Amino acid sequence: MDTTVPPSQAAAAGATTEDKTVAILCYVTILGFIAAIFMHQSHKTELGAFHLRQMLGMVLTGVVGGICGVVPILGWIVWFLVVIVMLVLWLLRLLSALKGDMRPVPILGEHYQRWFAGAFA
Hints:
The protein contains 5 helices and no strands.
């Protein structure tokens, strides 16, 4: 019985590991996001590009929420809610990256993919 792995399957298995590395790394601090961008530039993958676009959208959404935080009372409530929601979404995206899934962020994820379609392509 031949137990050798064909070269195409071996290459795909190696690419999957690197794909997941970029996807996971983009969710680990801003330095991880920057490192993931450089890793993605040397080996572009659909999974890596998807998660980089999702994280970019989440960061920009967080910045907009932070800007709302400068308005007294109502702005602080909005900022607090944005922080809580973004933490939950960040955790869900990190778990998705660990599994190698390409599930978009609820509500805004499909928009992130359209808005940043040219980024990380």
